[in-house]
Amino acid sequence: MTAMTEREFKTIAAPAQAEIVIKKSRFTGRLLPAKTPEEAAVLLADLRTQYWNASHHVWAYALRAGQQRRYSDDGEPQGTAGVPVLESLLRAEVSDCLCVVTRYFGGILLGASGLVRAYTQAATAALGAAEIRTMALSHTLRTRCDYGFYGRLVALVPECGGTVLAADFAQEVTVTFRLRAADAEDFAARLRDASHGRCTAELLEESFASR
After folding, report:
1. Is residue 94 part of a domain?
2. Which residues of 93-110 are buried (b: 16+ CB within 10 A; e: fewer)?
3. CB of 198 within 8 A of CB of 145?
4. Are both 53 and 148 inside the same structural domain?
5. What b/e sequence results for 61-76 when a residue is b if at least 16 CB atoms lie within 10 Å of its CB, and e otherwise?
6. Taking the model in full, what pTM does it have?
7. Are 169 and 58 in contact (CB under 8 A)?
8. For residue 51, how many other CB atoms are within 10 A of its CB?
9. pLDDT surpassing 50 at residue 2
10. Among 34, 55, 102, 136, who pairs with 8 as Cys (CB 3.0-4.6 Å)?
11. Assigned domain for 1 exists
């Protein structure tokens, strides 16, 4: 398992869910994007309201901010539900994500080991249904050049793995583009060489974007 660095992380692209049935109990695993405990609490409250007649809403989240990890067994025996759900998220190395496993009790007791397996399987099934993206730290940059160098500049950006976002044509051409932070040093060197030192890139913003 490869650990994510501070320059990249994995998360879900959109909500996802999957359902399993074990000995007449129905387990629905749901994954929802959440970046803060407050966002997670609102999402959980909405699910509790929508599925008010469920036996349990077991949940766990992993957030990048402060490396926060939380879980709840929601009435299931301690350690049999919330921990397996959280461990599923950690194994998948997914963050900024809330996982809620909603259970409708089918009348047959599963025992402690059976509950661990059931909640693990439900969370894993939801992860399998999700589109998981790797987000990389990116720089939004801006540079100015003359019209003669414009063609080389807009070719150099994708050569270095970047994307041109906009171009403004005035007395000079101003080009705005996005580039992975990991590629920024190589781009700067190539831009300097290609323009014979005439062009430099100005950093506008740091953000995470899908790799």
Report:
1. yes
2. bbbbbbbbbbbeeeeeeb
3. yes
4. no
5. bbbbeeeeeebbbbeb
6. 0.80
7. no
8. 15
9. no
10. 136
11. no
Distance between CA atoms of 122 and 192, rounded to whole angstroms?
53
Residue 23 and residue 123 in one domain:
yes
In the chain, the number of structural domains is 2
Same domain, 97 and 28: yes
Looking at every residue in the chain, the average pLDDT score rounds to 93
5 — pLDDT class (breaks 50, 70, 90): low
pLDDT digits (tens, 9 = 90+) for 150-208: 999 999 999 999 999 999 999 999 999 999 998 999 999 999 999 999 999 999 999 88
The C-alpha R_g of the chain, in whole angstroms, comes to 23
CA torsion 118-120-122-125 (nearest 10°) is -140
Owner of token pair 């999700």: 130
- What percent of the chain shows pLDDT beyond 70? 97
Residue appearing with tokens 């992860």: 127
The CA distance from 74 to 87, in Å, is 16
Residue 45: CB atoms within 10 A of its CB come to: 11
